[in-house]
Design a protein that fits this description.
Elements (H helix, E strand, L loop, with lengths): L1 H10 L14 E11 L2 E9 L10 E2 L2 E3 L7 H13 L8 E4 L3 E2 L5 E9 L12 E8 H5 L3 E2 L10 E5 L2 E3 L1 H14 L2
Parallel strand pairs: 1-7
Antiparallel strand pairs: 1-2, 1-4, 2-3, 2-8, 5-7, 6-7, 9-10, 10-11
């Protein structure tokens, strides 16, 4: 865990940045890492099946930049609070991974937070169907090619129990896996 945190801090320093020019297709997510029984865990959530965009998909808390957001870190913090009622203090942010592009044209900026306690959260059921508390390292070992797309796209997926984690979330997990050496 210490090695992963050090690699994140060295390779991906925190940069809040300016407000994006095209905020309609810009989003930010919060990758929350914390220890449970001395093992690193992350929080993922299944989006409500009633939502217009990405219904039922599993992802990190986060969402689209809004004009009132000063920067993308604020977007990630605000959306995390709105979706799972958890405010992540800026002091807990240890890195900002490279932007991830989605097939639908969004550009997502992932921020990584290292929380020094087991966070308490409560889903906003208008947006979130389920929250997953997942051991990080076992999840990272489930990486495999995602055959649901054209082979030329080289997509990957991860699995948590019977849940397929794909798309932008899988790209973010792949980056964490590469930092860990998986």
């Amino acid at each position: 865990m210490i090695l992963l945190v050090n690699r994140i801090k060295q390779k991906y320093p925190v940069f809040k940045g300016e407000p994006p020019a095209d905020h309609n297709m810009t989003a930010a997510v919060m990758v929350i890492i914390y220890l449970r029984e001395n093992n690193p865990h992350i929080i993922l959530m299944r989006r409500s099946r009633d939502l217009h965009r990405h219904p039922g998909e599993i992802g990190f808390p986060g969402g689209v930049f809004e004009e009132d957001d000063e920067n993308l870190l604020i977007t990630a913090q605000r959306e995390t609070f709105e979706e799972i009622n958890l405010w992540v203090e800026e002091a807990l942010i240890i890195g900002r991974l490279d932007k991830v592009k989605t097939l639908t044209g969004y550009e997502i900026t992932p921020f990584i937070a290292l929380v020094d306690h087991i966070p308490t959260y409560e889903p906003n059921f208008d947006e979130v169907e389920q929250i997953f508390d997942i051991p990080l390292f076992p999840l990272l070992t489930t990486q495999h090619p995602d055959t649901g797309f054209k082979s030329s796209m080289k997509m990957i997926a991860f699995w948590h129990k019977e849940n397929r984690i794909w798309g932008a979330t899988a790209k973010i997990l792949r980056e964490l896996a590469s930092l860990k050496g998986f």
